[in-house]
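[Q] Does anyone have a clean structure-token version of this?
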Amino acid sequence: MSGTQIKDRYAVIGNPVGHSKSPFIHGRFAAQTGEPVEYGALLAPVDAFVPHVRAFIEAGGRGLNVTVPFKLDAHAFADVLSPRAAAAGAVNTLRVDSNGVYGDNTDGFGLVRDIEVNLGVPLKGARILLLGAGGAARGVILPMLERGPHTLTIVNRTAAKAEALVDQFAQAAAEAACRLTGGNARAIEPGAYDVIVNATAGSLEASLPECDDGAFGSGTLAYDMMYGAHPTVFMEHAQKLGARGADGLGMLVEQAAESFYVWRGVRPEGAPVLAELRALLSAPSHA
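[A] Here you go.
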């Protein structure tokens, strides 16, 4: 084939979007796989998601990653939803093809893959504590249940929100033979959990979610969905209690790899891109 190869257009849409690592990640994935992908960032006004997406599609756009605050808008916009997007009630990946607009949610897959593959902690038979009951928590419950954990406890300051998620996912938990419980901090069971996932936004304002210190032990992986150049307050707290801390950077990379797979049918390797991103994030020049 002579001349320049025509590239398929993809982008991340959000508000704000300038800070997004997605263009870097997908640029690396395209180079790694040889897929003809061009990836940019799309800033949309909070009340103008649909016209911006329509314009992108009309200009030949093939797919979008969707970030804050548009995951519910994307859920409403999609013609067809994947089972995991339907369960999450939110969409972070849109694919445009001859059948219309397909909505998926790769966040939970990214979390599970980061924990199991990059961090080497199996979820099968594990006791898992999920802190928070908002959109971030809801998006990861089904993929975690599909790994067959022993117990999943959902804890939220407002107990009713956690209890609603327990009701919503009761059938999936039964199929996975997992004991699913939830409520406020009193729902935390005695003994250290194998995995504790912080799905609250607490780390953004350096606040800790309500959690019994006894839930953390030397064999506990304490996973914060947030990430930054330095360990989050949740990670520091967990490490003081003898647990192993991890942030959500690997989840970001792995959910992107799954999005790439949804679009292209090719699965890129997340680990080398994660290592490169981690080095960039911790470099002294990073403000």
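[Q] Thanks! Anything notable?
[A] Residues 12 and 41 are 5 Å apart (CA to CA).
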